[in-house]
Design a protein that fits this description.
mainly alpha; two-stranded antiparallel ribbon; elongated; TPR-like_helical_dom_sf; mRNA processing; mRNA splicing; Crooked neck pre-mRNA splicing factor 1; coiled coil
Length: about 650
């Protein structure tokens, strides 16, 4: 065995001038463009020279080009084309065409049988079937198609097979092919149109119905329902069309059903009435609400609008499904203000079930929270009462005030027992209520009014006494007024008078004095007038040191009105002397930062019996007298008659 040693490379450094592939291609192109001398002219004189010329021409133009580029679509011979690996369609087609011209059909079939196994075999399948059909070999062409369909080819291949059968009026065979075709390509629409085209309308409808069942609600196809609806429209089945559109619009998302909605609108405009157009508007609004609640599931206002829409148009199952979706969106924050709108979803749900769906629940479905809503408990109790389950209603309200006592719950429970005339229960509830909120004056008043209605005035008076004895009250003036009105209704005037005295020990408000005076006046006797005047006298003395001069003025004006109606001239004159003078004054204003903010004018009242203001009153009287004298002097100077008399004298 001989071994050949390669010579060692002495210099491995890169060359100074690098030759790139681009440079090589450019130089080769430049050489092609060089002008070469034309070949010498050759005259062919005999057949031998002609054959020699053809041989050289074939070698230069054909075989050398094939050696340079194996993909050139030149076919020097059948064997050479087949030896190139069956990678190009054109040579094979040329070979088969040549074989067909020579009537070599079996040879052509052998070539196609070899060609259909290549990666580009789908193109050979078309030509193979076409050849068999052109030869009139229908059975052979069908056999080739069957072999082709086993590969589960593209959609066009199936349609070619179907069209082949239709050309020979084999409709049943075409239907069988469609049945196989939809298992792989699921193009139900073309299958249905095939049946419709051949007037098999019942079969076409069954195909559409099978397609709807095949896709189900999870993979609904908009184009399928549009085609189904248009088919029924062509058959004049307008009610079927509406059912199809509504079924699809209720289940397909809005963003995927634009074409569906558009076709539904066109259909209703063509064949529908006012009701149909309204249904379209409802469907459009339903789509809008679906988009809103998907974008923000906690937008409860959008849920309310959506529910009002479906309640007016949809069946109970659909409405219930929307309610379940709405209440599933629980507020993420455990704060009551975020739960108010959500709770109304439950309320509306319960009312719908009771009024529309006629469903009765045994207990409320309240979520567990650190807070509660009194309205929910009250509505549930009212529901149980409507169902004639009074023990359940009482149990619910008792549970509510036990777990989460609130004013509304107590009031609602008491109102229920009042309507039932269970007054003993009302008393117990009021006691619990006042233990819970002893400062609530309204509760004390209502409790006392209940006892008054029942005729137990002593108990009512005791309740009032307990109420005014509380250290803290939210509206004490209302409570005292109610107590006083109670004693007046009972005609206990001495007790009423004592109440006024006790109230004046706590407050010296001008309205209390005026009310006291009006009470004394209500007797209608001479003694009553005297008592009323004494109250005004006492009130005026008490309020001399009052800083609120407007309240003192209010008292004097009320006294003056009393004297004008019932008093003598002497009494009227006396009250007039007590009325203050209204004086305009100025005072300095201060800003929030303590700087000067200018001056403002205001009115002050100066009472004549106030000793501290006597010097100011004298000064004011002198100023008024001086101003009056000045006005008189100006009037005399402006009198023209007086000037004439002086000139004559």
């Amino acid at each position: 065995m001989k071994f050949f040693l390669l010579p060692k490379v002495k210099n491995k450094a890169p060359a100074e001038v690098q030759i790139t592939a681009e440079q090589l291609l450019r130089e080769a192109k430049e050489r092609e463009l060089e002008l070469l001398p034309p070949p010498p002219q050759q005259k062919i004189t005999d057949e031998e020279e002609l054959n020699d010329y053809k041989l050289r021409k074939r070698k230069v133009n054909l075989e050398d080009n094939i050696k340079k580029n194996r993909t050139v679509s030149l076919v020097p011979s059948n064997e050479r084309a087949l030896a190139r690996g069956l990678r190009n369609v054109t040579p094979l087609a040329e070979v088969c065409r040549m074989e067909m011209k020579k009537r070599q059909v079996n040879h052509a079939r052998q070539i196609w049988d070899r060609a259909i196994t290549t990666p580009q075999g789908h193109q050979f399948w078309y030509k193979y079937t076409y050849m068999e059909e052109m030869l009139g070999n229908v059975a052979g062409a069908r056999q080739v198609f069957e072999r082709w369909m086993e590969w589960q080819p593209e959609e066009q291949a199936w349609h070619s097979y179907i069209n082949f059968e239709l050309r020979y009026k084999e409709v049943e065979r075409a239907r069988t092919i469609y049945e196989r075709y939809i298992l792989f390509r699921t193009n139900w629409i073309k299958y249905a149109r095939f049946e419709e085209k051949h007037s098999y309308f019942a079969h076409a409808r069954k195909v559409y119905e099978r397609a709807v069942e095949f896709f189900g609600e999870e993979h609904m196809n908009e184009h399928l329902f549009v085609a189904f609806a248009k088919f029924e429209e062509n058959q004049k089945e307008f009610e079927r069309v509406r059912v199809i559109y509504k079924y699809a619009l209720d289940r397909i998302p809005k963003q995927e059903a634009q074409e569906l909605f558009k076709n539904y609108t066109i259909f209703e405009k063509k064949f529908g009435d006012r009701r149909g157009i309204e249904d379209i508007i409802v469907s459009k609004r339903r789509f809008q609400y679906e988009e809103e609640v998907k974008a923000n599931p906690h937008n409860y206002d959008a849920w309310f609008d959506y529910l009002r829409l479906v309640e007016s148009d949809a069946d109970p199952d659909t409405v219930r499904e929307v309610y379940e979706r709405a209440i599933a969106n629980v507020p993420p924050i455990q704060e009551k203000r975020h739960w108010k709108r959500y709770i109304y979803l439950w309320i509306n749900y319960a009312l719908y079930e009771e009024l529309e769906a006629k469903v009765k629940h045994e207990s409320p479905l309240f979520p567990y929270l650190a807070f509660t809503f009194a309205k929910m408990w009250l509505l549930y109790a009212q529901f149980e009462i409507r169902q004639k389950n009074l023990p359940f209603a009482r149990r619910a309200l008792g549970t509510s005030i036990g777990k989460c006592p609130k004013n509304k719950l107590f009031k609602g429970y008491i109102e229920l027992e009042l309507q039932l005339r269970e007054f003993d229960r009302c008393r117990k509830l009021y006691e619990k209520f006042l233990e819970f909120t002893p400062e609530n004056c309204t509760s004390w008043i209502k409790f006392a009014e209940l006892e008054t209605i029942l005729g137990d005035t002593d108990r009512a008076r005791a309740i009032y006494e307990l109420a005014i004895g509380q250290p803290r009250l939210d509206m004490p003036e209302v409570l005292w007024k109610s107590y006083i009105d109670f004693e007046i209704e009972q005609e206990e005037y001495e007790k009423t008078r004592n109440l006024y005295r006790r109230l004046l020990q706590r407050t010296q408000h001008v309205k209390v004095w005026i009310s006291f005076a009006q009470f004394e006046l209500s007797g209608g006797k001479e003694e009553s007038l005297l008592r009323c005047r004494q109250v005004y006298e006492e009130a005026n003395k008490t309020m001399r040191n009052c800083e609120e001069k407007e309240e003192r003025l209010m008292l004097l004006e009320s006294w003056r009105n009393f004297e004008e109606e019932f008093g003598t001239d002497c009494n009227k004159e006396r009250v007039e002397k007590l009325m203050p003078d209204k004086v305009k004054k100025r005072r300095k204003l201060k800003a929030e930062d303590g700087s000067d903010a200018g001056w403002e004018e205001y009115y002050d009242y100066i009472f004549p019996e106030d000793a501290a203001n006597q010097p100011n009153l004298k000064l004011l009287a002198m100023a008024k007298l001086w101003k009056k004298q000045q006005q008189e002097n100006e009037a005399e100077e402006m009198d023209p008659d007086k000037d004439i008399d002086e000139s004559e004298s």
